[in-house]
Amino acid sequence: MTELTTAHAPRVRAPRVGALLRMRLRSERLPNKALAPIAGRPMFAHILDRTFAARSVRERGDVVVCITDDPSDDPLAPLIEATGARVHRGSEHDLIARLRGAVRERQFDVVIQVDGDDVCVDPLYMDLCVLALLLDETLDVAVCEGQPLGIGCKALRTDAIERVAAHYVPSPNGTGAMLYFTHTGLCKVATVGPIGPEHVHERARLTLDYPRDLELFRALFAELYRPGEVFGVGEIVSLLRRRPELVAINGGLAEEYRTRSGELIEREALRYRDARGRLRALEVSL
Hints:
Blueprint: E1 17-22, E2 37-38, E3 41-42, H1 43-52, E4 63-68, H2 76-81, E5 86-90, H3 95-106, E6 110-115, H4 123-135, E7 141-144, E8 154-157, H5 158-167, H6 179-182, E9 189-192, H7 211-224, H8 233-242, H9 244-247, H10 253-268, E10 271-273, E11 279-281
Parallel strand pairs: 1-4, 1-6, 4-5, 7-9
Antiparallel strand pairs: 2-3, 6-8, 7-8, 10-11
Helix pairs in contact: 3-5
């Protein structure tokens, strides 16, 4: 009988985890917001700080900022690369194609998907979404749910990105692209909720779409930001509970944002083919 030791164990390659940030300068509601100064630095730099802080991401070069191939985004590329992150350029209007191009270039197994509007996205929840996929091989997508808007992210298997790319009908999808993963039945989805009540605030809006959102972020960073450190959602929620006047800065924008997003998704008229090859229209009410 041969005694088995670790030398006999098959070598299993650890999944390669990356992060994909989608970003562009041409925005209808707040143009050039990625370059808007917050605490003396451009907004995009703060999102990169927080993504670099995720334990799941081993190297800065595994963070890829997916910008468009439109000349309007030319100023972004050298600024992003100066941080150590990578740049992938692709279709301005077809986000699915842009994401697929990025993962094919880098050969990731799992990616954290971060919206370029979410200045306070939390690295803790990046890691928790990745962990959900690593612990359950049947899952394709992990989505944050229940945290303040702008805190959470998604984790996607690159197999799921390829599957969606094979089933969707190419068309403009910059607003509704993630719905292909969560609302078509093409992917198995899990949710990652808040780890405790200290990470919950029903009224906080922490995404950057309007000038008043920018005003709020500048106020938050003035209170919480320290160079070289990343403050978490618990600190944000604690501050907002102590200082409700900060919540009021962009209070009332949630309904306008929801209505506008719904209109954009309806205009995109997203379609895909289901597992049986039948053409479907993607319908969702926000």
